[in-house]
Write a structure and sequence with these properties.
Belongs to the peptidase S33 family. The chain has 426 residues and is α/β, with parallel strands linked by helices. Helix content is 38%, strand content 17%. It is built from 17 helices and 11 strands. The protein has helices at 72-77, 99-102, 108-115, 120-133, 146-157, 178-199, 203-216, 229-232, 244-252, 267-277, 283-288, 302-306, 331-334, 342-349, 360-364, 383-392, 408-425, and strands at residues 5-11, 14-24, 34-44, 52-56, 82-87, 139-144, 162-168, 256-259, 262-265, 370-375, 397-401. Strand 4, helix 1 (72-77) and strand 5 form a beta-alpha-beta unit. Helix 4 (120-133) crosses helix 5.
């Protein structure tokens, strides 16, 4: 491991340190090579001796947030911590993994093997090397969504590095399969479609008109590819966010125009849908999404298979339904950012050897203070699995609420962090 490299600057009463650390690609030593891990640390004036809190972003495949202002949960955290915003490996400035980087590997098989090193176990090992490079003191950790999955792995494999753990919308099922997860999320997505229809009674009918139009008329996104009705349905991932209903309503408010007597989709509508359906900014999410649920067996495109158990989501079902946080193999045929990665994605989905990420025995003996916000109506992280995991982690305390959707930390982060710190320290 190379020495930590740090550059610093000032932002509004804070020192900001940008850390770069070279780490092994494979922490088990079975594959050669290194990658870089990047983290941005905020230190409020007068808090230079405060303990650190490391933040794990949701995803997988999303970098840590780049705050343009210090507010929300970050504002609250800086009252007592130095805050480390970690770009998980493959994201942001941590050796970003995309079709350009994967193109350096000669075959899909090599690409798939490479991708196996970007799961939560490797992310936690990176965090431990960074913690030690920063001096070795234990740190607090906050994880949102997939970040909470990573922290559950952290509690399983390196609890000695943690002083307290705070999780929002991110307690995973520690013994559930990908099939179990998608059965639960399809059911919750169906409920969110119904709730959306109650708030905006005409919108699903409008969406059905768009889907029917796409089945009969070629419409092209600004990136050049034809938009299919099945891909259009995936914008329903927004239904899992607090502001998602309104944003989806605005997107659907006037989708059609007439061009030389022919009904067409408006350019601005296609621009908005294109923004929502493209994985160009985060291809790693599409590649790794199902693998985060792999527990020693292949996922085998679970979301695609399990969808058949829910007839309401069939393309020819009566009544329109948006899909949610589900990745399908055909997206690797239709999204230009994913097309070169299809073969590698298939191999990763068929990999039976992805190891379990959680150790139930270690979690049952946990001594690290843990507090988690669990949302009853979460469309992405099933409530029933989160509650079971909270029981399985010794000493874990939960704030269970239906006040929030999956993005509660974004919309009310200061309050949530206050609540979780209070729970962890009670």
């Amino acid at each position: 491991m190379s020495p930590l490299v740090t550059e610093s600057h000032r932002v509004d009463g804070h020192d900001v340190h940008e850390h770069v650390l070279t780490v092994p690609l494979d922490h088990r030593g079975r594959a050669p090579g290194t990658i870089e891990v990047f983290a941005r640390e905020y230190v409020r004036d007068g808090r230079g001796a405060a303990p650190r809190l490391v933040f794990f972003q949701g995803g997988p495949g999303h970098p840590a947030n780049r705050p343009d202002v210090v507010g929300g949960w970050l504002e609250r955290a800086l009252e007592e911590f130095r805050v480390v915003l970690l770009d998980q490996r493959g994201t942001g400035r941590s050796t970003p993994l995309d079709r350009q980087g994967l193109a350096e590997l000669a075959t899909p098989a090599e690409q798939a093997r490479y991708l196996t090193h970007f799961r939560a176990d490797s992310i936690v090992a990176d965090a431990e090397l960074l913690r030690n490079a920063l001096g070795g003191d234990t740190w607090a950790a906050l994880g949102q969504s997939y970040g909470g999955f990573c922290l559950t792995t952290y509690l399983s494999q390196a609890p000695h590095g943690l002083r307290e753990v705070l999780i929002t919308a991110g307690l995973p099922g520690i013994a559930t399969s990908a099939d179990d997860v998608y059965r639960a999320t399809y059911a919750q997505t169906a409920l969110r479609n119904e709730e959306f229809s109650v708030r905006y009674p005409r919108d699903l009918a409008v969406a059905q008109q768009v889907a029917d139009h796409l089945d009969g008329v070629e419409e092209f996104l600004p990136t050049g590819e034809r938009l299919s009705s099945r891909r259009f349905r995936t914008i329903g991932i927004a239904l899992g966010q607090a502001t998602g209903f309104d944003g989806l309503h605005f997107a659907l408010e006037d989708p059609f125009t007439t061009v030389r007597g022919e009904r067409r989709l408006r350019e601005r509508f296609l621009l908005e849908v294109g923004r929502r359906v493209s994985f160009a900014a985060h291809p790693l999410y599409a590649l790794l999404h199902e693998s985060i649920y792999a527990q020693g067996s292949a996922t085998d495109w679970a979301a695609h298979r399990v969808r058949a158990e829910f007839p309401a989501f069939a393309l020819d079902a009566p009544g329109f339904r948006f899909t949610g946080e589900h990745v399908y193999p055909w997206q690797f045929e239709e999204d230009p950012a994913l097309v070169p990665l299809r073969a590698a994605a298939d191999l990763l989905a068929a990999d039976p050897d992805l190891p379990p990420l959680y150790d139930a025995d270690v979690l049952a003996e946990n001594t690290v203070p843990v507090a988690a916000a669990v949302y009853v109506d979460d469309m992405f992280v099933p409530y029933e699995f989160s509650r079971a995991t909270a029981t399985a982690i010794r000493g874990a305390r939960t704030f269970v609420t239906n006040e929030y959707q999956h993005d509660g930390l974004r919309v009310d982060g200061k309050r949530l962090l206050d609540v979780l710190l209070g729970l962890a320290r009670r």
